[in-house]
Each structure stands twice: as C-alpha cells, then as structure tokens.
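Researcher: Please predict.
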Amino acid sequence: MRRVLHTTYHTPNRTPTCEPIYMRVGYNIKAWREHLGYTQAELAEAVGLTRTSINNIEAGRQRVMLHMVQKIAVALTVTFADLFADVPTCEQEPIA
C-alpha cells in the first residue's frame, strides 16, 4: 500500500518551506559541515536529530527552530551569526 504524503502541516517546524531565510541557513550549515569534514549523520547525532532532518534543513525544506540552530552552531564550532550570513565564509578557521 502506498502512503500519500500531504504537504499541509499544522506545526510550525514541519511546514514545507522555500523561504529564503531557511534556504540561507541550510546552505550555510551544509557549507560549514562539509568544510569541517562532518557527515550529515555525524552532525545529526551531535544535535539529536535524524540524518534526514539535517538533509531537509540543509535543503531549506524544513524549518528549524532557533534553539536547534544554536545546537548546530555549537556542534560545528561556529557562531550563531555564521549560520545566518549572506555568504558562507568557509575560508575562516572554525572558532574553538
């Protein structure tokens, strides 16, 4: 039996989105994660999410709450502001 997925959700963090802020944050998370050599699975384990959630966040398909952005920033050893930057600056050394 095939399961039909609906795109209308009632909880804020499960709303499908293509809003620029989520796409920017997701792009920056992916850029920093790859720069630091982490897999999606490793980041997911560090912050208590699934690998699929990390994939959806990086693609801008899943809204992410601020406290989770902070946990991701800590796991990646970057600042909270780094994840909201217009252009990721992967040339910078990670903040210890």
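Model: Residues 20-36 form the longest helix (17 residues).
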